[in-house]
Amino acid sequence: MEPHFWHDRWQRQQIGFHQAQINPLLVKHWSALKVDAGAVFVPLCGKTLDLHYFVQQGHPVLGNEFNTLAVEQFFAESGLTPDITPAAELTQYQAQQYRLLLGDFFALTPAQLADCRAFYDRGALVALPEQMRQRYAQHLSKIIPTGCKGLAVLLDYPQEQLDGPAFAVSPAWLNTYLGDAFTIEQIASYDVLAENGKFVQNGVSWLNENVFVLTRK
Ligand SMILES: C[S@@+](CC[C@H](N)C(=O)[O-])C[C@H]1O[C@@H](n2cnc3c(N)ncnc32)[C@H](O)[C@@H]1O
């Protein structure tokens, strides 16, 4: 999606992707990464409450989001007042263990992620249409440090039956575009069609939520 699509969604507060609780699949599967220290990188983070989960687990968190309202709402709704400073092409908002880089994901540098030991994708890969997602995979491979482990929660369904976002990201897609840079292990798969009315109403025949552990080679 082009930036204006997301800025418009935030402006109108049409943010159906935002969850009112920490993602249950994050809570269920985070321990599979076996990462006990170091910062966690959360690309395309919106104002997700999942950021709090990492801090509760003892990890500093580094989010990235290009919508100002999203970043400001995250801090305001968390009762935090951030220090705001320039960070290369982006702007850093920091309070306590929370550091959010406001700006384009594609402008992030490896140096900005150097202290990250883990990353988390919910609503990032699936937010992007095919061409942009391929670019995203290339850039992610460039900026994630060696040995860093990621948890990815992705939707998969027959893309020809419904347009995104959320887009389908299959295990085969992951292997094709991230397999050179990451080892990829699928650790869970859930049939979530019944609880997603939009997909049912549009006649989508199946919808899975798949969980992966990725390790940067
Ligand atoms: C589907 S939402 C998911 C947000 C969050 N991960 C969640 O689970 O609530 C995608 C988010 O990515 C942001 N975004 C899209 N493209 C971006 C880019 N190139 N750089 C930074 N943020 C981006 C959007 O503004 C939006 O908040």
Gist?
The protein is built from seven helices and nine strands. The chain has helices spanning 3-12, 24-29, 50-56, 68-77, 130-143, 171-178, 197-201, and strands at 39-42, 61-65, 83-87, 90-95, 98-102, 116-122, 149-156, 182-191, 208-216.
Question: Key features?
Answer:
217 residues; Rossmann fold; globular; binds S-adenosylmethionine; thiopurine S-methyltransferase activity; SAM-dependent_MTases_sf; transferase; TPMT; S-adenosyl-L-methionine
Q: What count of helical segments does DSSP give?
A: 7
Nearest-integer average pLDDT: 97
Instruction: Label the overall shape.
Output: globular
CATH class: Alpha Beta
In which order are the strands of the major sheet placed? 3-4-5-2-1-6-7-9-8
Radius of gyration: 17 Å
Q: What's the count of strands?
A: 9
Poorly predicted regions: none
Structural class: alpha/beta
Bound heterogens, unique: S-adenosylmethionine
Main β sheet profile: 9 strands, mixed
Q: Remind me, CATH topology?
A: Rossmann fold
Strand content: 25-35%
Q: Name the CATH homologous superfamily.
A: Vaccinia Virus protein VP39
Query: What is the H-and-E element order?
Result: HHEHEHEEEEHEHEHE
**Helix share of residues?**
25-40%
Integer count of domains: 1
Looking at the overall shape, the CATH architecture is 3-Layer(aba) Sandwich
| Amino- and carboxy-terminal Cα gap | 29 Å
GO biological process, one term: methylation
Catalytic activity: S-adenosyl-L-methionine + a thiopurine = S-adenosyl-L-homocysteine + a thiopurine S-methylether
InterPro entries: SAM-dependent_MTases_sf (IPR029063), Thiopur_S-MeTfrase_Se/Te_detox (IPR022474), Thiopurine_S-MeTrfase (IPR025835), TPMT (IPR008854)
Subcellular location: Cytoplasm
